[in-house]
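Figure 6 in text form: structure in, sequence out.
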């Protein structure tokens, strides 16, 4: 579902933290809160002010619209309406959400480009910022490179992409900590891709996963989270206990039985013969970009070590209903080829509620590691995913 229309209110402050005041709320072209480029453009058009958005301060939403209050940095003081709020300090705040954080990221990017003989030929453009990433486009001669910064819990993304060099992944121009520079990827994002392109996406992922079978130690050394049976069993049990008060009595009962039965379910899953390997974690058509003959798989921050079919449910949920059966059949056929004697169809059935519960684990992990003002992005997600898990369990998954 498309979110309701967004109004953006900007609290302006200088790089030293001195608050200038507030700008009246502006209608923004897109509804997604982390989509920052249209916010910057709206402020430029309405007020002639150049801003860098740092983070969300407050969200007020209803079914018809949402007003998001952002903190934005301006180079020097500008006229604005009085604002009586207080800017607090938060230990979980991302570096790129602090005063001077984006400037430090851009300075690193310029230095890294210079080491490769490249320099900017135009102003950097802020594209996105939220608790999971900051993204800038940087024009250089002949292409646009991308600067991405991530929170500490996604710091494995750049080292993993480096380890995947030669696969259909972004080309890194440099990385340091949670920062990375990526070369331009020609083409377009694959939302709404045709069925044959969906088959190619499955082939791409299964190929990568097959080549990482037996390399669990390497993946863990890169910092990827462990989603294998023991770790995921414990994590699902913990998130259920923490989220239980938000669930209906009916769902609590189904989930309590599901959690108690997880050791048996994981044993049956292992008997299906598909080994643990690299899982992308957020595999869907929109995270692939490219042209007709070439695809690139983006956004590896959600990746982990676990069952390869963990990636199937999110993908199948985001493609046209009429394509699901054909894509599922191709997926299962590819794994029967990659793991002779395996039973991926049985594995997919057993895994369905586990995959949904893993999503609850992921979102609870976000909430535990982001500052409170950013919680509205994810607050409802753990309970929502456990509710889906309960429905799958009752349906016989």
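Output sequence:
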């Amino acid at each position: 579902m498309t979110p309701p229309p967004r109004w953006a209110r900007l609290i302006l402050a200088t790089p030293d933290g001195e608050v200038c005041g507030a700008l009246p709320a502006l209608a923004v072209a897109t509804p997604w809160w982390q989509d920052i480029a249209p916010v910057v453009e709206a402020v430029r058009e309405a007020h002639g002010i150049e801003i860098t958005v740092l983070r969300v301060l407050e969200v007020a939403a209803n079914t018809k619209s949402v007003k998001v209050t952002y903190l934005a940095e301006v180079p020097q003081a500008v006229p604005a309406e009085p604002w009586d709020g207080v800017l607090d300090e938060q230990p979980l705040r991302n570096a790129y959400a602090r005063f001077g954080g984006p400037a430090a990221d851009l300075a690193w990017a310029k230095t890294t480009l210079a080491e490769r003989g490249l320099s900017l030929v135009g102003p950097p453009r802020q594209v996105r910022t939220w608790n999971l990433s900051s993204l800038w486009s940087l024009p250089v001669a002949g292409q646009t490179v991308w600067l991405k910064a991530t929170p500490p819990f996604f710091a494995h993304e750049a080292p993993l992409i480096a380890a995947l060099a030669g696969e259909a992944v972004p080309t890194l121009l440099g990385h340091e900590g949670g920062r990375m520079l990526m070369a331009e990827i020609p083409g377009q994002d694959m939302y709404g891709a045709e069925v044959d392109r969906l088959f190619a996406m499955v082939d791409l992922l299964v190929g990568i996963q097959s080549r990482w079978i037996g390399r669990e130690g390497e993946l863990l050394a890169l910092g990827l989270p462990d989603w294998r049976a023991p770790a995921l069993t414990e994590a699902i049990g913990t998130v259920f206990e923490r989220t239980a008060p938000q669930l209906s009595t009916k769902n609590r009962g189904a989930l309590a039985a599901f959690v108690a039965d997880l050791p048996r379910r994981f044993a049956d899953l292992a008997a299906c013969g598909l080994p643990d390997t690299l899982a992308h974690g957020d595999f869907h058509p929109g995270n692939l970009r490219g042209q007709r003959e070439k695809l690139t798989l983006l956004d590896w921050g959600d990746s982990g070590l676990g069952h390869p079919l963990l990636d199937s449910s999110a993908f199948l949920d985001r493609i046209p209903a009429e394509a699901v059966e054909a894509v599922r059949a191709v997926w299962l056929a590819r794994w029967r080829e990659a793991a002779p004697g395996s039973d991926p169809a049985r594995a997919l059935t057993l895994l369905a509620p586990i995959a949904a519960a893993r999503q609850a684990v992921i979102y609870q992990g976000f909430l535990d590691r982001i500052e409170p003002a950013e919680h509205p992005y994810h607050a409802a997600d753990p309970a929502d995913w456990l509710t889906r898990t309960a429905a799958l369990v009752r349906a016989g998954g």
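Caption detail: The two ends are 25 Å apart (CA to CA).
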